[in-house]
Amino acid sequence: MSDTAPTGPITFPELSRMSLTRLKSVGDGKRAESFGKFEVQNLLDLLTHYPRRWIDRTKEATIASAIEGADSLVIGEVKSVTAPPKGARRGPSRVTATIADESGRLSIVFFNQPWRERQLKVGSFVAVFGRLGSFNGTKQMANPTVDILGDPDERPRPIIAVYPQSEKIDLPSWLVLKAIDETLTRCRARGIHDPVSVAMRKKYKLMDRQSALMGIHVPETFAEKEMARRRLAFDELLRVQLVLVMRKRAIERDSVGIQHKTNGQLVSRFYQHLPYQLTGAQHRVIAEIESDLAGPHPMHR
Fold it and tell me: Which of 22, 80, 104, 264 is 20 to 30 A from 207, comparing alpha carbons?
C-alpha cells in the first residue's frame, strides 16, 4: 500500500469511507451515536443529510417590533426555562421559557410538551415562529415552532439551514451545521469531484457539485439555494437513469428475445389500405420498431 496522500478532487466513494468520528465537532462519543440514529455514519451521509427548511433572517423581527396578533419570526438567546415540579402538576404539563434579543424579552409557553425543558438550554440561540400574543402585559407565544441555532457569538448568516430533529434524539440543528461546516472546510483544499462534465453543466445551466453542496447547506441567498437544489435533484435523476440503463444493458446481454419477420405480405397490405400517406417521421419510427422486432433482444418501448 502506498503511503502517499490522496490527490485530486474527493469522490463520493472516498467520502463514504471516511467515518464521522474523525470530525472534531463530533468525536466518537454520544454525538456520533446521535448522528447514527439518523443513519449518518460517514462524511457522505453527512453532506447528503439535507436541511428540511431554511430560515430567512432578512424577515426576522426584533421582539420589540413584533406585532401582536401576527405571525412573527424572532431569534434570541434563552434566558430562563421553568416547569412546575412533577408532584405539583395538575392538568396539562407546561414549560415556560424566556428569550431575549437586544430589543426586549419574550415569553414562550408549551403545553403537553415536557421534553421542551430538556431541549431549551439557557444560553442557547433559538429561532421561534408563532403568533404573538400577550399575557399579563408580557409578550408571549404559545406552542411556537422552535429551532435551536447555536451560539449567539457565531457569525450570523442571512439564511440558516434547519435539519430534521427528534424529541427523542439529542441532535440540535446547529450541531449538524457545525459538522457540515467542518466537512466542507476540509474538502475545500482538494475540492469535490464532479462526474458531470463542464459541457453538460453549461448545457443544462447547472452549478458544480461542490458549489451545490455549499449552496444547499450554507446559502447566501434563496436563489443560490434553489440553484443548489436543482443541481442535486439533477444528480438524483441521473443516478436513477444510469441504473435503468445498466439494467437494460444487462437484459440485452443475458436475455434472448423472439425474432420476428417484418417484411411479410400482411405488413404491405396494411400500408396499402391506409387512407393517407405516412410521413417521413412515421416511416422512421416504424423502421426502428421493425429493427427491434427482428433483433435477438427484448424490446424496451
Answer: 22
Which pLDDT score, from 0 to 100, does residue 2 have?
Answer: 42
Q: What is the DSSP string of the chain?
A: ---SPP-SSBPHHHHHTSBGGGSTTTTTSHHHHHHHHTT--BHHHHHT---SEEEEGGG-B-TTTPPTTSEEEEEEEEEEEE---GGG--SS-EEEEEEEETTEEEEEEEES-TTHHHH--TT-EEEEEEEEEEETTEEEEES-EEEEEE-TTSPP-SEEEE---BTTB---HHHHHHHHHHHHHHHHTT-B---S-HHHHHHHT---HHHHHHHHHS-SSHHHHHHHHHHHHHHHHHHHHHHHHHHHHHHHHH--PPP----SHHHHHHHHT-SSPPPHHHHHHHHHHHHHHHSSS----
Q: List, in order of start, the domains of the chain with CATH numbers.
A: 12-52+171-188 (no CATH), 59-157 (2.40.50.140), 209-254 (no CATH)
**pTM of the predicted structure, to 2 decimals:** 0.70
Q: CB–CB of 175/25 below 8 Å? A: yes
* Amino acid type, 52: R
pLDDT per residue as tens digits for the range 66-80: 999 988 889 999 999
**Are 68 and 133 spatial neighbours (Cβ–Cβ below 8 Å)?**
yes
- Size (the chain), residues: 301
**Distances in whole angstroms, Cα of residue 113 to Cα of each of 212, 218, 228:** 37, 30, 35
